[in-house]
Amino acid sequence: MRDYYEILGVARGSDEAALKAAFRKLAMEHHPDRNGGSEESASRFKEINEAYSVLSDPKKRAAYDQFGHAGVNGGQGGGGGPGFADINDIFSEVFGSAFGDMFGGGQRRSGPARGQDLRYDLEITLEQAYAGSEVEITAATAMTCEACEGGGAKPGTSPVTCPTCGGAGRVRASQGFFAIERTCPRCGGEGRTISDPCTTCRGHGQVRRNRTLQVRIPAGVDDGARIRLSGEGDAGARGGPRGDLYIFVSVRPHDLFERDGLDLHCTVPVPMTTAVPGGEIEAPCLSDGSPDDAENNRLTVKVPEGAQTGRTVRIRGRGMPSLRSRERGDLVVELFVETPTRLNARQKALMQEFADLCGDQQHPESSGFLNKARKFWEDVTGG
């Protein structure tokens, strides 16, 4: 049988800290669950645990140093040595993230716990997004029960220590050569039980109530933005801090404007009688509602002579404000030239006279198109 000091890789005069450090390192390295259930790893792991069980116990170590394996019951380290207590620490490190509750990695839940974060979906208008606004919302949140002050027990009574776990919140069971801890099934890890629950909250310590809150919408907020209201979520358990409330903003589609980043786009009809000679039209725009906004909700837009449908006019600084700077986007006005309809005989005659006076010189786009069309027809017919 191998020497226990050799198994742990330590000198005979090593102190308790050196022994424990060597044991933890080797136990994590050779644990079967970290080595695909290897029989060799299982055997090595058991050997490491046995060595540490003896050497970590001062009496057993003294007997081993004097008589060797014969001094510790033929080389058996015993089932109750300190090595078995430390094995749970090893499991916590190896499996803490996934199996903490099974191997002792979980924590008793009787202390304060932070409340849950909440989500609230808020739809606003483009005008509100442009100018910024204060919006009142009503959200259902968990509140500390006033009747029992969050304790869960009926007023005048108190929770009692859980008889199953003795207030520890966890129970332990031995399996093979190591012990397994798990959350107490009776108290759910609280360490206490409520025999006479509060009639208001039914023992939960919290009740759900509607709360009215004022939410500030910053100017320039975009669709899909998220606003965090710190401490406005659910109440924490056992005196813990409140969670947060997250406002998810959606901007309602507008009848006139479309947003593209900081720019606003708007299509404005232009009478043909204005588009041909050029002139001015009125276009809508957004306003922050302040007295300084003299232009209010309309702008005068100059239409260049001979403007065609699709021509754009850019008004600097009349788009959306930026959330992070003093920059503003532009208002892009797209012109849509209207053709007169339902003309009487006199109007039709004048239009024909106008067309005769203009000739092809005044329709460069039409002339270019007709030239391409004639070539296409000639290629098709071979003419």
Automatic annotation (TrEMBL):
Keywords: Chaperone, Cytoplasm, DNA replication, Metal-binding, Repeat, Stress response, Zinc, Zinc-finger
SUPFAM superfamilies attached to this UniProt entry: Chaperone J-domain (SSF46565), DnaJ/Hsp40 cysteine-rich domain (SSF57938), HSP40/DnaJ peptide-binding domain (SSF49493)
Pfam family, one: DnaJ
Binding site for Zn(2+) 1: 145, 148, 198, 201
Domain J intervals: 3-68
Cofactor(s) essential for the protein: Zn(2+)
Positions annotated as zinc finger (CR-type): 132-210
CXXCXGXG motif repeats: 145-152, 162-169, 184-191, 198-205
One GO BP annotation of this record: DNA replication
Annotated TM spans: none
Localization of this protein: Cytoplasm
Any one GO MF annotation of this record: zinc ion binding
Entry note about domains: The J domain is necessary and sufficient to stimulate DnaK ATPase activity. Zinc center 1 plays an important role in the autonomous, DnaK-independent chaperone activity of DnaJ. Zinc center 2 is essential for interaction with DnaK and for DnaJ activity.
Reported function: Participates actively in the response to hyperosmotic and heat shock by preventing the aggregation of stress-denatured proteins and by disaggregating proteins, also in an autonomous, DnaK-independent fashion. Unfolded proteins bind initially to DnaJ; upon interaction with the DnaJ-bound protein, DnaK hydrolyzes its bound ATP, resulting in the formation of a stable complex. GrpE releases ADP from DnaK; ATP binding to DnaK triggers the release of the substrate protein, thus completing the reaction cycle.
Family (UniProt): Belongs to the DnaJ family.
Protein name: Chaperone protein DnaJ
The organism's taxonomic lineage, starting at the top: Bacteria, Pseudomonadati, Pseudomonadota, Alphaproteobacteria, Caulobacterales
Gene: dnaJ
